[in-house]
């Protein structure tokens, strides 16, 4: 078993050796995600456009893809959500190694890939323990979007499920009003 600093060093080494891959430490284990596919990136581009369109910056928010999130579940634990909505002053919450404290995150979103179970299971618990107010999972494996919101005592209540043809309302706790198309979250922008 690796010591925590050795674990962080191993994750840093993998990040350097595997360009384009996402390297995270979840519950003390290194998780490597392959480079994203086109539809996944289209979904993320569309999200940036939607948050811009409704004036999220004017509401004191930033919306960023691939920003490091420090997790309180272990000394080296960190995630790199596909998309995050953070407070405008998030830079003041830098912990270390381009990881930011969870209190500045209002919403994180993951679009599942080959290791979908990490997004749909492991990250649910870690994001809840971090107190992330809203977690959206575009679950391409099960063809639905899950919304986890308002964690209590380190756990999210059961998620809301959204099927194709519907929209997901961004929770009030994020600080803006916006409905997101399930189909676009799952398939990318057509």
Main sheet overview: 6 strands, mixed
Rg result:
16 Å
Helix content range: 25-40%
Count the helices. How many?
Answer: 4
Order of helices and strands: HEEHEEEEEEEHEEEEEH
Describe the structure.
The protein starts with a helix and ends with a helix. By secondary structure, the protein is α+β, with helices and mostly antiparallel strands. It contains four helices and 14 strands. The longest helix has 16 residues, at 38-53. It has a six-stranded mixed sheet with strand order 3-6-9-10-11-12, sandwiched between helices. A four-stranded mixed sheet has the order 5-4-8-7, with no helix packed on it. It is globular, with a radius of gyration of 16 Å.
Task: Give me the secondary-structure topology.
Blueprint: H1 4-17, E1 22-26, E2 29-33, H2 38-53, E3 61-64, E4 68-70, E5 78-79, E6 83-87, E7 94-96, E8 99-100, E9 105-111, H3 116-129, E10 134-139, E11 144-149, E12 160-162, E13 167-169, E14 179-181, H4 182-187
In short:
Residues 15-180 form the Putative restriction endonuclease domain. Helix content is 26%, strand content 30%.
